[in-house]
Amino acid sequence: MTADTQQQTPTETRVPSTPAWAMLRTLGGIALISGLLVALVYQFTLPIIAENQRVLTEKAVFHVLPEASVKHDFVITDKGGLAPVGSGAEGEVVYGGYDAQGHLVGLAITGVAVGYAGPIRVLFAYDPDCRCLTGSKVLSSNETPGFGDKLDFDPVFLKNFEELDARLDAEGKALANPIVTVKHGTKSRPWEIDGISGATISSKAMGRAANAAAQHAVPAIERDLAWLKQQH
Asked: Which residue range or ranges hold the FMN-binding domain (predicted)?
């Protein structure tokens, strides 16, 4: 057999292997840098998000309390009363609305309930003169467009909140009649919400949010009502 016909044995080429520790170190470094960037972005955007939320809430307060020109913020304390925000007390915030003469025109209270696509957070107006809810504004919602947004724009549905009964029981610790949503066209009591046809789940969530807001805030408001009227 000649050199021309002799079978050549292929030469193996070895690829240098990367040590496992080096790969882990590289991946760990990338993860550390990524985590640091996420943290920096979060810290940078947090004040912006908080300010946007503050502006949104303030607009909502004056939307549900159109006669107010000034608002003062209070918290519901663990003792069941109210205290000014910044006094050291912590709890759910209640917004007091006052007119130009310093008279209390109403309070804005927050309720949350689970709807069709997640939590619905709503701001309600409470009028201590009629002991009723007189307005509403959805703060956040993921409900289906065309149905869930009726909670904020359907004029027939919004009439439910022109004078929705929220008076307390004899002990002053809970509503005399829990607020509930009923089937469209069957409302017969002042504490009932007439539901929206085609958006039953969303409108029932609105009723639960209103009931939660009133059950939690109205006893504290009524307990300290005389004090609230002096906070102008």
From this structure: 115-217
Residues in contact with 189: Cβ distance below 8 Å, sequence separation at least 6, in sequence order: 165, 177
Amino acid making up residue 118 = G
On whether the CB atoms of residues 185 and 179 are closer than 8 A, the answer is no
Q: How far is CA 38 from CA 24, 51, 65, in A?
A: 21, 20, 39
What predicted TM-score, i.e. pTM, was given to this entire model?
A: 0.78
Read off the tokens for 87: 């006094």
pLDDT of 200 reads 87
Structure tokens at 232: 């102008």
Query: Cβ distance 191 to 164 under 8 Å?
Result: yes
Sign, CA dihedral 217-219-220-221, equals positive
State the average pLDDT over residues 193-221. Answer: 94
Q: From CA 205, how far away is CA 132, in angstroms rounded?
A: 19
User: In the chain, what percentage of residues exceed pLDDT 90?
Assistant: 60
Question: Do residues 54 and 46 lie in contact, with contact meaning Cβ atoms separated by under 8 Å?
Answer: no
Token pair for 161: 């909140």
